[in-house]
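Q: Make up one entry.
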Amino acid sequence: MHDTFTILGIDFPAYFTFLMLGYTFVVLLAHKDTPRLKINGNHLLDMAMLLIIAGLIGARLLHVVADGQFDEYVKLCTNPLATKGELLAGGKQCVTDAQCIEAKLGALCHPEHGTCHSGRDCLRAFKFWYGGLAYYGGLALASVVGVLFIRWRKMPFRRVADLAGYGIPLGLVFGRLGCFFAGCCYGTIAKFGGLEFPKGSPAWVHHFEAGLITKQATHSLPVHVTQLWEAAVCFAIFAYVYFWRRKRQRFDGQSFAWSLMAYAVARFIIEIWRDDPRGVWFGLSTSQWLGIPLFAIGAGLYWYWRKNPVDYDASDSKANAALERNQEVDE
């Protein structure tokens, strides 16, 4: 597990690094496809800048509200010592605050438990770079912003959506690889084929707090690598859409609708084996509940667009004339 990467002496969080690399690659790949779809490339790049901001805000908001850690953020502001603490290397208890600071485990040492805790921080809920992003929240807010931008710029809605049909799953491949290196989003204990995460990782802490391992354990129990499962499934969705479906579409929007349905089903199933602390409602995780309407939306769009194959924006003569003028300026 590598929760950070050091480049030129600077530490970069693994998850956020992979997320940014993936998003950049996806935008460049989609931009390359704009001439074929008669989409203004500059408008796409402008939208991409807005979507990354909206995605981060939405993903962070859903994490804070629905991932079961809201109380932790409240305690971090009102009473930091009441939050979950960490032991020093080797399972040793701290005695002074200086030990926690030196070990980069926080700024406070609990006087009774000997665990390290972060200092008071009333703004932690807004600091997404510390980890904690819920994909569906980012998808929801980015979708709203994207629709508004597309309408404003009079872009062909379904064709732009088709770019997301392969762009979103490819971006998730990078995101889940970041999860794997950071150690988050791990699965349940595996009887075979699992992977042990090192001491101090989220899986190790979870198993230690549950009494499944002792503080002397150097690794967690073997767990299902659900991060890599999802990365593999998302790559399969991307490969199918990009290399096969997008070149054989029967109607604009087909790739996007199909991608939504495929991901919703895959994520719902993978969530069965997820074991990291997150929101659970009536036996289903937050992501499983959100996956149900996502599948319904994808199926509804697929049915409607198939019955109405003409994309109004793409067939609008005025919009196309403006697009051609803009493309000439871009060239």
User: Anything to note?
Assistant: Residues 317-331 have pLDDT under 50 and may be disordered. Residues 98 and 107 are 7 Å apart (CA to CA). The chain has one domain: 4-83+118-188+224-325.
